[in-house]
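Hey, resending since the last one bounced:
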Amino acid sequence: MTVEIRRADDRFRTQSDWLDSRHSFSFGPYYDPANVGFGLLMVHNDEVVAPGTGFDTHPHQDVEIVTWVLRGALLHQDSEGHSGLIYPGLVQRMSAGSGIQHSERNDAGDPVRYVQMWVRPGEYDLTPSYQQAEVAESLATGELVPIASGLRKHKGTTAITINQPRAGLSVARLAPGQSTQLPPAPHAHLFVALGNIAVESAGHLAHSDAARITNADGQRVTAGPEGAEVLLWEMTD
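The structure tokens again:
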């Protein structure tokens, strides 16, 4: 097992009068050939969008896009006629497939913070599709809950599916001092969305830190005194 810790402040940061975005991997004007992804995960952006602003209509193709809101609400609209408000406790997936255009805007009066993640698809040139689901109640146990997955082991339990049979996203909301166990996986990307945690054999991760774990073997994760919310991408490739 190897663990690479990526601290929040070490990520490339895009800032403007309406957007504050931290990129875990190469993105937009930032390119590092040694940091273009991890496993099947291509993009992992932690974004804050100011009120009354957002991303105007833009295209995507052949990528699985999962969005998880931490604060506020984000309005999604796309060229396939889908429209939905994404808020904490609701997970959204857009499969870009053969090509889709969408916009993401914050029409509320407060900033919205969300994490957007892109995964390589399992099949290409499919018909674009969209799915969202409420998952807040299922997170009350503090265990890792699959919310957007194509993994066979999550079939029938994941809230929504993605077009990638070798990857899955789970979320855990941990009370202060509560622990959960990471699953064994060739690649595991652990992100601290809220609070802070201690990771067995890896140390302390603060708010917005991440760990890239190769050949994960079931480490325990324990929340700090304020509790924590963690996002885990489990990948077999």
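The mean pLDDT is 96.

Sorry for the duplicate.
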